[in-house]
Design brief:
By secondary structure, this protein is an alpha/beta fold. About 30% of the residues lie in helices and about 20% in strands. The longest helix has about 35 residues. The protein starts with 7 loop residues before the first helix and ends with a strand.
Length: about 1450
């Protein structure tokens, strides 16, 4: 930048002019932002002195630093508008020093303001030639704000002190400094002051599109293809900085960050791409270390190297050795320009409060000034030709560091930073002879770099080329519009016929089909699937996966036959029909013809609406058997084999779109199929004659689902008319589509499971009113559904698709793809390709992957093609920056993770208490429990009453083999909470103030398990017998088991979290709607990975079963909701994977801890203001009962969001019902609830279970000090629970009959038991009853266990004898039944024989065959006709037919006159024979 020199006379005139400018500026400054205006006075006061300095009038006596800008106005962070005003004022007041400009605009249109500072030297004949350019940038992460303010302070310091400080004068006279305070103004606008870590989803850190700008630059290690792809998606801020860097010959640069205190230098990544701990050095490593040391040594904190939970030798680090970063700005500066840039982390807190800014400036001012002076080390010079003209883009090579040439500017200038030493320097340029190497001795003792010029001689070059053009023509395929190309039968196929049909297709078209089975039915029939694709057998990247499923209900058969016909149709027409050929070439289709072959086999043709064959062989409706987002009932508590096979199949392939073909109606049905409360509302599950009054339950993709349903409906000749079926005449479906929940509730349905669990969009298509139509109707069904079936498949290509890769080109599997911030996700396949269905228009796409920075971009799907391709490059998200954003920068949780021994665990727990005694207590050997279990208790105000706090337990695992992994995660949680408390994180403080957390990392058997791991690091699932879970489930007493159960009982935890492995599920007590909603809240995580299927094994299945049993047991016994979070497939993965497992599960753990933020609290008092300590709260329509605390009668209930009715009751007091609306992340405080007392006139018994299992509140007997409660279990000899066993008190006799029945876990509880000696009797069907005498002293007697043997007697006789007699009786009965049937059939056979009556002919009268009439027949006699006798002519010859003639008309008259009811038989003889 060229500046004008002033002569002394001109300087005097400048003073006068500036005085006028100051007067004008002071008057106009009122238009500037208030805070900026407040600081203008200080700037104005130095303007005249600065002008005098420009004229050469500075005096040594006037050297006084002016830093009034620090405190006046009060320290605060300037907005983007205030920065513009400040830079404009500096330019106006110091026109010879400052120039304001903008390097570009952000995504939101904000200007990226920069300020250039320099002063020309009147003694410099060359003006600004060879004056090095420096830049100082900051705030590339919008929430790292300290550097932003340091740059602004530097601008004010240099301009306001130029007149009086020689150091500043020399710097600006010889250097051109460019200041860019904010590379990311949009992000800064979203960040929040006082937040030391990034906000959720990196809001504020990234730009408005959600892109981390320090991962968006070209990378030196990118291949050309990746670099080209990324260039098209470059953010406007990044593009502006790139153009700025490449457009100016910057020599040295500093980039300010926050979150640590260290000076980091290139490179930031390495060829090996290790996460950390491997240096990646540049050729100029010595220069960079000099720069880093210069800054760190002048910084009072940085030079120590111990801060922010990090240790850096001398306060400096190589970027890659710290953590891997691809696409960073400092590497771009060095690799793609002449600029040597260094990253400087200024503070542990990213966005501290503004009152800390003066101290930050004091620490960094000297470092900044010394760093800026380094632009004058090394050598500099001009490269010209023989005529003196500058040569641009000439390379300056230095011996020993030839890998980094420096290029000359357009004016032929170069600056080569070097440390002291002797070097050989050479200049090379295209079209010129290389210069001779010049030896130079660099000392860096002067104030400027050593001057070294080069003059190059030209040389001639000649290049020729030969080019050819190739023309390519594509031929067209023939088309054919016929239907089937071979004769086709329309008929129903049973399982055998279907199997034969499919095998014939597979053999006839092996190149495009593959027949495979996904499992077997209850009766061991294969579930056959046909794949149709041009290269069947495996997933092909870029090809979407589609599936049709039919015959889920065995008697709904139309879908099955349609798929069989569609398979034949597509195979025949492949290569003939352009549409079919394109579909087979571009879509991998899977057809499951019969999901319920067992049900089909018992169904009947012609069935219109019955339920015969609907269910499978276990009589379970398969479309009620899938896991449901809203609950569990008896229909989906146990997964049927057909359902299990379909779920495993669906999760094994990256399906995009699906349809489930049904019958019984004519409509396209889309999710959701049920509402939140339908599990407790049986009426909602009934299909009524109208859809009016049903509650719509739309998904996040509601409009997309409606479109897909409409596609099928509109393509169908009659479905879109919405006509009702005969049995449901009042059902009307506008446009032939309906939301499932609005029609009727289907809990446990397949289409909802596909959408929620597998990420697949699925519709339920009802193809006709008749479930099992006659075969002759199938042609009509085919004609109606062929086009809709094909058109629906074609929709799989609509939306956005592409490939997700890393910056080094490797594919990224299981990357989550979201549109418009929706929670529903699709996932990239193992090949990195993804498909996300969407409607045309603008969408915000977000792509997340573990270990990578989120990718966000706004896309536009065109209306004409309805699809677009978006290939995405994800930048590696270094663990430490992830830790800063999500884990309070606890580096130990993500770097060099390993399994810690028992002594190390105890040492760490002890250190928690030693260093954080205000929130932590280490419970080791303080009690008998502490001897066996090491635990740490975390809460605010240790030692204060804890009655008003929730109690939360985090247990490493119930399984010894999983505990090594679980306890590492438990220790990570402890460190996370500790650091959150240190930095005063709001959510952490609230957690500690509202709850008491017990963290219990189990240490038993660790050495044995770890030795297994050491012997074989690939050991995934170590095995060990008699684990803790087994002992807890066993009724046998054992010291450690009993201590843990006693601990659970005494502490009465509100929540328990434990860890498992071997699956992808969160296990919790099933059947409780409130618990299920809490579980869904835990699983609701944006950064959750793809739901995966862990390979099953016998041990994993056993652990899962034990986890479910133990979870239900603890809930029944102690009313404790236990959530078991599965961390990984392996129970003991390799140590380096612990960091990834922590990153994957941290959001779910945070969600668990946030459960206490939602619920209801209050206090119960009598009308006299006394606490009612015996009060309890019952949730109406729920089974939950909660007791108040023992002292203040306070209640605090964790509830998910929703509306509830609370009944507050207490003995001898009137109940109170309160309706409350619970909103997310809010505690509804009901205040003090007062109950009015009343006099109890008559007694009664009401059993209300207290928390802890077994205590009853509210009964007259339980209130009496003379009664007690007994609880326990009834088990068989194999320790299995005995259901419906009756437990009764037989002695002493009481006024009320005391008895109860066991539940599904064999648990029972009886209240009102009199004190003293009692006798309990237990009776159960098919078991031998037993009894026991107990001595009851009072309170609650728990754990009374009965074991019943199986009763081997039936009706008083041994079982074998009963079976013998029963078999004989059955055989005799069958013989008698057989004889009776034969007898009845014989009688029926005789009754069916024709009866003929004959008698003697008369002896007198006419001749026998005398002609009496024209008909030639004579009536011989009449006789009474027996009932049931056939009245037909008799013929001598069987089968003889009489030809009808005109004469027969008279016979007809005779027949008409004959009365069949006369009881007479007329026998006619034919005389014509």
């Amino acid at each position: 930048m060229r500046m004008i020199s002033l002569t002394p006379a001109q300087g005097i005139r400048a003073c006068c002019i500036i005085a006028l400018i100051i007067t004008f500026a002071t008057a106009s400054v009122q238009n500037v932002t208030n805070n900026t205006t407040a600081g203008a006075d200080n700037i104005t006061n130095t303007a005249a002195a600065t002008a005098a300095a420009a004229a050469g009038s500075a005096s040594p006596a006037d050297i006084v630093e002016d830093e009034s800008f620090i405190t006046h106005p009060a320290p605060h962070y300037l907005s983007n508008g205030e920065i513009s005003a400040l830079f404009g004022k500096l330019q106006d007041l110091f026109p010879n020093l400052a120039t304001k400009y903008s390097i570009g605009k952000t995504l939101k249109g904000r200007q990226m303001y920069a300020l250039a500072l320099t002063a020309s030297n009147k003694d410099d004949k060359n003006g600004d030639l060879l004056r090095p350019m420096i830049k100082v940038t900051a705030n590339i992460h919008g929430d790292e704000a300290v550097g932003r303010q340091m740059v602004l302070f530097l601008a004010q310091y240099l301009t306001m002190n130029y007149a009086n400080v020689p150091e500043v004068q020399l710097l600006l006279n010889t250097t051109e400094i460019h200041l860019l305070p904010s590379c990311n103004p949009d992000g800064f606008a979203l960040a929040k002051e006082g937040n030391c870590e990034s906000l959720p989803n990196y809001i504020g850190r990234t730009n408005a599109a959600g892109i981390d700008l320090n991962r968006d630059f070209p990378d030196r290690l990118e291949n050309q293809q990746v670099s080209q792809l990324r260039s098209h998606k470059r953010q406007p801020e990044t593009a502006a900085i790139i153009n700025w860097v490449l457009g100016k010959p910057f020599v040295l640069s500093a980039n300010f960050h926050g979150g640590a205190i260290v000076a980091s230098y290139p490179y930031d990544n390495s060829i090996a791409h290790h996460e950390c701990c491997e240096e990646s050095l540049t050729p100029d490593d010595r220069v960079f270390k000099l720069m880093a040391h210069t800054y760190a040594n002048n910084h009072p904190i940085m030079r120590k190297g111990h801060n922010c939970n990090d240790t850096f030798t001398d306060g400096i680090t190589n970027g890659a050795n710290w953590y891997e970063l691809n696409g960073g700005m400092q590497d771009f500066n060095y690799a793609f320009s002449n600029c040597f840039e260094m990253t400087i982390e200024l503070s542990c807190c990213k966005y501290p409060t503004a009152d800390t800014l003066p101290a930050e400036w004091a620490r960094n001012k000297r470092s900044l000034m010394q760093l800026l002076k380094l632009s004058h080390i090394g050598v500099k010079g001009l490269v010209t030709d023989a005529s003196g003209y500058p040569i641009a883009d000439a390379n300056i090579l230095v011996s020993g560091i030839e890998d980094k040439p420096i290029r000359t500017t357009k004016r032929g200038e170069y600056w080569r930073l070097l440390t002291p030493g002797i070097y050989n320097v050479q200049a090379l340029a295209f079209g010129y002879q290389p210069s001779e190497p010049k030896q130079v001795h660099v000392t860096n003792e002067n104030s400027e770099a050593l001057r070294l010029d080069f003059v190059l001689s030209p040389r001639e070059l000649n290049y020729d080329g030969d080019f050819r053009k190739v023309k390519v023509e594509r031929s067209k395929a023939p088309t054919n519009d016929d239907d089937f190309l071979t004769p086709t039968k329309f008929e129903h196929h049973n399982f055998t016929e279907m199997e034969k049909y499919l095998r014939n297709i597979a053999e006839s078209y092996p190149s495009i089909t593959r027949l495979y089975s996904i499992g077997k039915s209850v009766q061991h029939r294969d579930l056959w699937v046909m794949e149709i694709f041009v290269t069947p057998g495996q997933h092909v990247p870029g090809i979407p996966e589609f599936k049709y499923v039919a015959n889920m209900h065995g008697n709904e058969v139309v879908g099955k036959e349609m798929l069989l016909l569609l398979t034949k149709y597509m195979c025949e027409r492949f290569g003939v029909d352009e549409r079919i050929t394109k579909l087979v070439n571009t879509t991998r289709m899977h057809f499951l013809y019969s999901m319920n072959p067992d049900g089909y086999e018992v169904s009947q043709e012609g069935d219109k609406s019955s339920g015969k064959g609907r269910a499978n062989a276990n009589n379970i409706d398969l479309n009620r058997n899938f896991p449901d987002q809203y609950g569990t009932d008896k229909l989906n508590a146990v997964t049927e084999p057909e359902v299990a096979a379909v779920m495993k199949w669906t999760l094994s392939l990256p399906f995009v779109l699906s349809a489930n073909l049904h019958g019984g109606s004519l409509v396209a049905n889309y999710p959701y199929d049920d509402n939140e409360n339908d599990f407790s509302d049986p009426v909602a599950r009934l299909r009524m004659a109208t859809t009016m009054g049903r509650k719509l339950n739309p998904t996040e993709d509601h409009e997309l689902f409606k479109y897909l349903a409409t596609v099928y409906s509109e393509a169908h000749p009659t479905m879109h008319l919405g006509q009702a079926c005969p049995l449901f005449k009042n059902e009307h479906f506008p446009n032939g589509i309906v939301n499932g929940a609005q029609w009727y509730s289907v809990t446990g349905g397949m289409q909802d499971w596909n959408y929620v669990r597998a990420g697949v969009l699925e519709l339920t298509l009802e193809l006709g009113c008749d479930k099992f139509p006659m075969a002759d109707e199938l042609p009509n069904y085919w004609h109606d559904n062929r086009e809709p079936l094909l058109k629906f498949i074609e929709q799989v290509h609509n939306g956005v698709h592409g490939t997700v890769r890393s910056s080094i080109g490797s594919v990224i599997a299981s990357a989550a793809v979201r549109l418009n911030d929706a929670k529903h996700v699709s996932y990239s396949s193992a090949n990195g390709d993804y498909w996300k269905l969407a409607l045309p228009g603008r969408h915000n796409i977000t792509i997340l992957a573990d270990g990578f920075a989120p990718y966000r971009e706004e896309i536009a799907i065109p209306e004409d093609t309805r699809e677009m391709r978006l290939d995405v490059i994800l930048m590696r998200d270094d663990p430490q920056h992830w830790s800063s954003a999500n884990d309070f920068r606890v580096i130990e949780n993500v770097v060099k993770t390993r399994y810690h021994s028992n002594p190390e665990i105890r040492q760490r727990l002890a250190e928690f208490e030693t260093r954080n005694g205000q929130i932590a207590t280490f419970g080791y050997a303080e009690s008998e429990f502490g001897i066996y279990y090491n635990s740490i208790k975390l809460t605010a105000d240790i030692g204060e009453p804890e009655e008003s706090k929730y109690k939360i337990l985090i247990l490493s695992s119930f399984f010894d083999t999983t505990s090594p992994l679980g306890r590492e995660i438990t220790m990570n949680i402890a460190r996370h909470i500790r650091e959150g408390y240190k930095i005063r994180d709001t959510s952490t403080l609230n957690l500690l103030q509202r709850s008491v957390l017990y963290l219990l990392p189990l240490t038993e058997n660790f050495d044995v398990i770890f030795n297994m791991y050491n012997r074989n690091n690939s050991l995934c699932d170590p095995e060990m017998g008699n684990e803790l879970a087994d002992r807890l489930l066993s009724p046998e007493s054992e010291k450690k088991r009993d201590l843990l159960l006693q601990f659970l009982e005494n502490e009465r935890f509100d929540l328990v979290l434990t860890f498992t492995a071997g699956s992808s599920e969160l296990t919790y007590p099933k059947g409780e709607p409130i618990i299920e909603k809490l579980a869904h809240a835990i699983k609701d995580s944006e950064f959750s990975t793809q739901p995966h299927q862990c390979p099953l094994s016998s041990t994993r299945s056993l652990h899962q079963s034990s986890t479910e049993r133990l979870t239900n047991l603890l809930y029944k016994m102690y009313n404790i909701p236990v959530f078991s979070l599965s961390l990984s497939c392996c129970r003991m993965p390799i140590q380096t994977e612990i960091a990834s497992i922590w990153r994957t599960n941290i959001d779910k753990i945070k969600n668990f801890l946030r459960l206490i933020e939602t619920g209801v609290v209050g206090q119960v008092q009598s009308d006299k203001g006394e606490p009612l300590r015996s009060a309890y709260i019952r949730l109406i329509d729920h089974q939950h009962v909660y007791n108040v605390t023992r002292n203040a009668a306070r209640f605090q209930i964790i509830l998910p969001a929703g509306e509830y009715a609370l009944e507050i009751s207490a003995p001898n007091h009137e109940s109170l019902v309160k309706r409350v609306l619970i909103t997310p992340r809010e505690l509804n405080n009901l205040g003090v609830l007062k109950l009015s007392s009343y006099t109890l006139l008559t007694g009664g018994v009401s059993e209300v279970h207290r928390l802890g299992g077994g205590d009853n509140v509210g009964s007259a007997s339980s209130l009496s000090p003379q009664t007690a409660t007994i609880s326990g279990f009834v088990l068989d000899t194999s320790n299995h629970p005995v259901k419906h066993a009756k437990v009764s008190v037989t002695a002493p006799q009481t006024r009320n009959y005391l008895r109860n029945f066991t539940d599904s876990l064999g648990a029972y509880s009886i209240s009102g038991i009199p004190l003293g000696e009692i006798t309990l009797k237990v009776e159960a069907p098919r078991h031998v009853g037993t009894g026991r005498v107990l001595h009851v002293e009072g309170g609650a007697v728990r754990g009374v266990i009965f074991r019943l043997g199986v009763d081997e007697h039936v009706w008083g006789m041994p079982r074998w004898l009963f079976i013998f007699f029963a078999s004989i009786t059955i055989i005799v009965g069958m013989i008698v039944c057989f004889l009776c049937v034969q007898f009845l059939l014989a009688r029926r056979h005789r009754a069916d024989k024709r009866y003929y009556s004959f008698s003697l002919l008369p002896q007198k009268g006419k001749e026998l065959f005398e002609d009496d009439g024209e008909d030639g027949e004579t009536e011989l006699f009449r006789s009474p006709i027996k009932k049931s006798m056939s009245i037909k002519p008799y013929y001598d010859v069987e089968g003889l037919e009489i030809e009808r003639s005109d004469d027969d008309d008279e016979d007809d008259d005779f027949r008409n006159e004959f009365n069949e009811d006369s009881g007479e038989e007329v026998v006619m003889l034919d005389k014509r024979r």
